[in-house]
Here is the input.
Amino acid sequence: MRPLLNPDLVPGLAFAAYRYRFLGIYVVIGVLSLGCEFVVYRGLERLGMDYPYCAIVGVASGVLLAYWGNVRFTFKVPIAKRRRALSYFVVISFLSWGVQFLVRRQIRRWSYEEARLAISGCAFLLAYALHRRFSFADYKKVAVAVYANRVEDIKSIHSRIENFPDVIHVDVADATLGSRTDEVLTSRLEVVRAYWPHKPIHVHIMSRTPSKYLDEIFPHADRVYIHAEIDEEPGAVLKRIRDAGKQAGIVITADTPLDTARRYHGDIQSVLFLGIATPGVSGQPFHMSTLLRVNEFNTWPERARVDVCVDGGVTELVVGLLNVEIVVSGSFVLESADPRGQIMRLQTSSSYEQI
Here is the structure.
């Protein structure tokens, strides 16, 4: 029996589905939410409720269904950030509906369903863009890790992963913290920025004296992480990072008390959980104790005010378990024969081939 599709077309179709996965699932959920709205609207109308009250209840039902479907299936927003997502989603959705309501009053010859479908279709792309920008800004992102040293061939890395990562994560590691002894070259940050000018660049300083690297890092970084176990006052270093207009983050290793994240929560925008035993060494397995610590932190009130990043040992078997905003992967991506495919597997929680 001949296949329905030319086998040569399958990879291209799979990539197209991956590339537009957010939009595709968003459309499906949007259609389902409109269906829910119409059912509720007509049901309340039959019960004698006047317009626009039955329309308001119907729209609210559709909005809640669309919100739940998108945070759960489309963008996979971490639980701690879903209240924020709901606020933006409701405001944007009802502003959109308010405009549509005014337009609907001018098209009285159309039924409620016809008007909603037509006007929603016209406003769709604008609403989608606003939701992407505000409601679902905290969807799970994938960062690829490179080292700021003489060994990393950044040009080669760029040719292999191109712009597939959501974030570029740069490790600045010296011999004072961890086991790396190669020379730190902060000038590599300039090269990274040149190859990925439109990507957020997050820098993880693995050093007991991070301050000596900051001035050279600041021009090219958007976020800077430091360890709590340093020979300087962490609070002062975090303030210096913020004063430079950069986001600040604290690193939680396997030996760092979890309360450290609470101690500095007013000074940071992000917490990085290190999922491996030894900082600065690639290829280590993920420690499941990290998952337990992340899950515990996710229950704290402070969690809603910061992003959570997990770095180290992240593979397609682990990523779906992590309820966080950012996952960082190095060797899993860069040592693969198909690094872009690995990034796509992480971005889709290991379901790229099933899209």
Notes: DSSP finds 13 helices and eight strands in the chain. The longest strand covers residues 141-147. Residues 8-135 form one domain.
